[in-house]
Amino acid sequence: MQYRTIPKTGEEISPLGFGAMRLPLKNGRIDREKASKLIYHAIDNGVNFIDTAYLYGDSESFLGEVLQGEYRDKVKLCTKLPAINVRKYEDMENILSEQLKRLQRDSIDYYLIHAVDLKAMNRLIKRGLFKFISKVKSEGKIRHVGFSYHGPKEEFALLIDGYDWDVVMVQYNYFDENVQASMEGIEYAASKGIGILVMEPLKGGILAGKMPKEAEDIFKKANPNKSTAQWALEWVLNNRNVTCVLSGMNTFQQLDENLESANDVTPLSMSLEDMQTVELVKRVMRDSLKINCSTCGYCMPCPQGVNIPECMKIYNEKYLFGHKGLFNQSLIDYYQYVGGIMGNSGNAGRCNGCGKCLRKCPQKLDIIAELKKVKKEFEIPGSRYILWFVQHVGFPIYRYFVKILNR
Questions:
Q1: Domains in the chain: how many in total?
Q2: Which domain range does residue 94 map to?
């Protein structure tokens, strides 16, 4: 694996980083046995950068437990200060103290201000952000500092110029190359010696796994042995300004595929033919994708219980994969996963338009309007009564016959 250097810090970072937001789960919590094996396998194969955040559930505590002994000093650990949780200066110090305890460390290698745009950054500055950074750096509690960007591309350079940042984290993939920071913003930050950390290289999984048949056919024709995820990851790694691509890997297959790409791709090594192949697929995807949602989950939790990412994912899949017919797969998925059949009601119709999700969305989506589309698509007239019948009549009958057959 050919490591890439962050000019501001001089540290060599693996081109593939482990994003700890989407670790494998068991009973709603991190599957510690499986997740630790994944982490160790990644480190054993050259990954030396792991990213987490205060808001990623029990991710920080988990990493604090497993990154001990021989693995403690093999990685650069990155976590984030949640801008949304800061109301006063003391909040920053209290949150960092809690994070150090969770991570079981005296110092954090890379500390990012989480999910900021210009408005959020200015609010934090008024509460003493730069004083806080200076203080905790002098105390050795953090070594390097940056921010993860969730704003429009027009504001990005203003934030870059606002402080002597070491790194910045941006969303970047072949589908979203001109959103948020954009290609130009990445080049500008890199020109100042700032390390570029990339989140959502697979757009929350949309650019991996199953894709529209036309897109899959284009990729297979170009290289039948390369997965859709590898195409997406290699496109990002090809950018000479990218330092590290963070991927939320929760299976060994995903991890090994990504390790292969990180070992094979160096900056500007992708052929012109391969770049043109990706461009063709991007056009197909743009024609099919209805909602530009990466399912990152920053909009959650919803006060009304709407599972916003899942609603939008199912809606997108209906059009990406051409699900048709009265009882098509997407309709079945909707009622199975968010419609309440399994007792997990998080359907779009629960939205009351409160708007609390709007300011948290990195894509700046009009979530309220999009949920109305989802509701119109899937919540057919009389669906409440059909749902009641399935829950109270259909399932009991099904369970009765299963019980009889298993005697």
A1: 2
A2: 4-288
Q: Are residues 58 and 154 in the same domain?
A: yes
Q: Which two tokens stand for residue 356?
A: 């609390």
**Average pLDDT taken over every residue of the chain:** 89
Give domain status of residue 243, yes or no: yes
Examine residue 299 and state whether it is found in any structural domain, yes or no.
no
What are 274-323's pLDDT values in tens digits? Answer: 999 999 999 988 887 788 887 888 899 999 999 998 888 888 878 877 77
Tokens read off for 102? 């969770």
Contacts of 290 (CB under 8 A, 6+ apart): 315, 316, 319, 373
Query: 302 in a domain, yes or no?
Result: no
Tell me the Ramachandran region of residue 251: left when phi exceeds 0, alpha when psi lies from -120 to 50, beta otherwise: beta
Amino acid symbol at 291 = I
CATH number of domain containing 90: 3.20.20.100
* Shared-domain flag, residues 392 and 259: no
pLDDT 10s digits, 181-239: 889 999 999 999 999 999 989 987 878 878 888 999 999 999 999 999 999 999 999 99
Among 288, 323, 346, give the residue marking a domain's end.
288
**Do both 265 and 359 map to the same domain?**
no
